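Work Package 3 (structural annotation) set out to generate three-dimensional models for the target panel prioritized at the project kickoff. During this period the team completed the workflow that converts sequence records into discrete structure tokens, so that structures can be stored uniformly alongside our sequence database. As a representative example, we reproduce one entry of 116 residues exactly as it appears in the project archive.
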Amino acid sequence: MLMLLATINVVDKLDKILYALMEKGIKNATILDSTNMRHALTHNDEAVSHFGILRQLLHPEREESVTLIFVGDEDQVKLIKNTILETIGNFKESDTGYFAVIPAVEGTSFKNCTLE
């Protein structure tokens, strides 16, 4: 069992991503509002590098991100990752987002849990 964390910085494509995932049978995900660390520092730290300030001037609208969390087997995680990549299009552009896949020791909905 794996956990896929996908941080998407192109928030305007979120609905398209979710509909594409649903069409492929993926119906469960956790969606968290998130902020890129560099963006947060640009707003909160007067000692931020000139590059961070320049970046903020060039892309001031890029304030938010979403982090999608999925748990599934290897095939499901591959399907989810590929669907997100296909939906976003050019994922190679700087700061579009990132993936992290980590082992999940256990994954159970609350309705299936019992006290141990």
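The first helix runs from residue 14 to 23.
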